[in-house]
Every structure is written in C-alpha cells, then in structure tokens.
Amino acid sequence: MNEKKINLLLVEDEQMLAEILSDTLTDKGFNVRTAYDGLSALERWRKERADVIVTDVMMPKMDGYSLVKALRAEGCDVPILFLTARSATEDVVNGFEVGANDFLRKPFAIDELIARLNALAGRKQREQPSERLFSFGSYEFYPTESKIHSPRGNISLSAREAQVLLRLCRNMNDTVSAESLLKELWGDDSFYNLRSLNVFISRLRKHLEEDESVEIINIRGVGYKLKC
Question: Is 66 or 129 the better-scoring residue by pLDDT?
C-alpha cells in the first residue's frame, strides 16, 4: 500500500454494509469517512476533502445522481465511483453523465473495489497540467473544464465525454483501441461497457458535426480515431 493514505468518502445508506466496507478499507490502508445519505455526504465534503468518493445511487434525502451533480457544480474534481445494484445501461450512462468516473455493480469483490479505488486515486495524481488545451479544426477542447469552444459557442461535456475525447486528442489522427479506452475508463472491456462507450462516441460526433474536417472514425473491430 502507498505510504500516504488515500482519503475516502464512503456514502452508503445500508449501515451494516457501510460499516463492513469502512472496516475492510481501513485495514487496507484507506482513511475512510462515512455518510449515510447524499445530503450528509455533501455537507461532509464541504468540511473534509477526500481523494476519492464512493457512493450508492438510491439513498434518502438526496440520491447519488443528485449528489454527484451537486459536487461537480461546487467544483469537486476528485474521482467518484458509483457502487450500486442498479446496472441497466441507462443507469450507467446517467451516472457518467452527471460526472462519475467509474461504476461498480453490487454484488462485488472487495479486491476489485480496492483495485479500482487505487487506480482512480493514481489517475488523479497522473493528470498532466500541460493538457489544458487541444486545438483541432475549428474547435478548442479544454479537458479540465470539460468544454469545447466552437464557432457556435461553448459546448459543455459530461465528465465521461471529456475523458473519452481527451484520450482521442492525445492520439490525434492515430487509432485508439476500444479495449484500452474501456479498461482505462470503465475498468473492463465487457460488451456491456462497449455499448456505453458507443453512446459517448455518438454524442461526441454530434458535438463535432459542424466542422466537416473533423470526424471520429470507427476502425472496425479495433477502436476509434479522431481525424482532423
């Protein structure tokens, strides 16, 4: 385990599960703070910052989607993982739309949760300050702001749209494999997650459709290329 403990905010309304997770993750070297509903979690975040946030979706007072949306609106940029029994495609997409970084379905293996938390915390540390602007065609993409500046005005992206576009911009005019995108951003390359990736690729194409010199090409059976 890293010498510096990862500060974790755990939001779970099932008190017994919350206590089990808190004890287990503490034993694994995490510094865990717990909240049992979305509103309490938001208030706790305002007082005590965290390196990673884990939250359920269905909770009293404020659900997980509303919590994440409120956190992002207040400038919270730490990685957030949804830990929930809700696993329909629309639930996953909605989670990424409001600003989540990962999605783990219940029931789950504790080792997988720990691996994902360590990966999320490490990803935050690896963010490159120099990657503040990518220019292509008539667009300017600001990853840290999750915005595209276009001739018709600013386009606000969801957190997951921005993450996918960032990977394409890093490899502009080169193919990025779907497998690498899925493993880095979703945690695995299952068919279920591939469907989610395709949704975000379609949305990015819609955002970029004004400039015909820019397109996201599907390299069949391999991945995607941002061509400009």
Answer: 66
What single DSSP character describes residue 59? -
Cα dist. 22→5, 38, 129 in Å?
A: 14, 17, 33
* pLDDT for 145: 81
CATH superfamily label, 7-126: Response regulator (3.40.50.2300)
Q: Tell me the pLDDT band of 2, cut-offs 50, 70 and 90.
A: very low
Of 82, 76, 48, which Cα lies nearest the Cα of 63? 82
Under 8 Å between Cβ of 101 and 163: yes
The one-letter amino acid at 62: M
Percent of the chain with pLDDT over 90: 44
In this structure, is the dihedral angle defined by the CA atoms of residues 19, 25, 28 and 32, taken in order, positive or negative? negative
Q: What was the pLDDT predicted at 1?
A: 40
d(CA 32, CA 163): 27
Instruction: Count CA within 13 A, CB hemisphere, residue 11.
Output: 32
Which residues of the chain does CATH 3.40.50.2300 include? Answer: 7-126
Out of 2.30.110.10, 1.10.10.10, 3.20.20.140, 2.60.120.10, select the CATH number for domain 134-227.
Answer: 1.10.10.10
What are the angstrom distances between the C-alpha of 11 and each of 16, 49, 122, 152, 210?
A: 12, 14, 21, 40, 41
Name the nearest CA neighbour of 137 among 73, 227, 55.
227
